[in-house]
């Protein structure tokens, strides 16, 4: 791949190396296998929304309800989000019945721990990254911010208004909702939403 590294790429590489240094066993093996899906999730979806990897744990180990170990691709310990990068082949195309059962148990186990399961497919992240960011931004707005949080303090007035508006709606918001809320044109609204 011949692309220049962005700040998000460099921060991701630093985070990955830092967490490899403190990991062992199965978690370390998973960190060493981090591929394009996990990089895309962190660099193209999580970073634009959070602008930081503070509080992020890669390959967070949890004990499932049956006692088995499971790992969450990206765990945000500040809001208990379990964010997953799911490729079709690994998570659907070539999955065995036993693996399918394990994956469902993992999701139930996350729920029992109060962790919100937030999956993104590779194709979504690759073909519709703005939609992924918008969904994640909405979830942070609904569950992760309050007036005292650093994310909220650093948000622009337009972003704060969007967060409040999305919370009032109580449903996923669309670009038409952004235009109504901000009373701006489609391009201006797209710029505001895609900055993060």
How is this structure best summarized?
With 196 residues, this protein is an alpha+beta fold. The chain has helices spanning 7-22, 25-32, 36-50, 88-93, 97-112, 122-127, 129-144, 150-154, 157-169, 175-182, 186-194, and strands at 56-63, 69-76, 81-86, 116-121. Strand 1 (56-63) and strand 2 (69-76) form a beta hairpin.
- Return Rg in Å: 17 Å
How much helix, percentage-wise, in residues?
Answer: 55-70%
What's the mean pLDDT score? 85
Shape type: globular
Named CATH topology of the largest domain: Endonuclease, Chain A
Q: Counting H and I runs of at least 4 residues, what is the number of helices?
A: 11
pLDDT < 50 runs, ≥5 residues: none
Cα(first) to Cα(last) distance is 25 Å
CATH architectural group of the largest domain: 3-Layer(aba) Sandwich
CATH class descriptor of the largest domain: Alpha Beta
- Share of β-strand residues: 5-15%
Q: Quaternary state, please? A: single chain
How many extended strands?
4
Profile the largest sheet.
4 strands, mixed
User: What's the order of the H and E elements?
Assistant: HHHEEEHHEHHHHHH
Side by side, the strands of the main sheet go 1-2-3-4
Q: What structural category arises from helix and sheet content? A: alpha+beta
| Tally of individual domains | 2
Task: Produce the secondary structure layout.
Layout: H1 7-22, H2 25-32, H3 36-50, E1 56-63, E2 69-76, E3 81-86, H4 88-93, H5 97-112, E4 116-121, H6 122-127, H7 129-144, H8 150-154, H9 157-169, H10 175-182, H11 186-194
Parallel strand pairs: 3-4
Antiparallel strand pairs: 1-2, 2-3
Helix pairs in contact: 1-2, 3-7, 9-10
């Amino acid at each position: 791949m011949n692309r220049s590294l962005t700040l998000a790429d460099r921060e991701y590489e630093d985070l990955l190396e830092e967490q490899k240094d403190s990991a062992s066993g199965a978690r370390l093996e998973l960190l060493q296998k981090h591929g394009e899906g996990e990089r895309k999730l962190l660099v193209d979806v999580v970073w634009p929304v959070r602008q930081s990897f503070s509080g992020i744990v890669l390959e967070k180990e949890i004990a499932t309800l049956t006692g088995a170990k499971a790992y969450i691709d990206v765990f945000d310990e500040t809001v208990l989000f379990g964010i997953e990068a799911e490729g079709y082949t690994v998570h659907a195309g070539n999955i065995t019945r036993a693996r399918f059962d394990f994956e469902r148990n993992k999701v139930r186990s996350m729920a029992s721990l109060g962790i919100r399961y937030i999956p993104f497919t590779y194709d979504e992240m690759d073909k519709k990254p703005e939609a992924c960011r918008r969904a994640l931004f909405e979830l942070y707005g609904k569950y992760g911010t309050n007036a005292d949080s650093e994310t909220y303090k650093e948000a622009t007035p337009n972003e704060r208004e969007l967060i409040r508006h999305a919370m009032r709606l109580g449903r996923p918001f669309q670009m038409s909702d952004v235009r109504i809320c901000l009373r701006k044109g489609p391009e201006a609204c797209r710029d505001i939403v895609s900055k993060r």
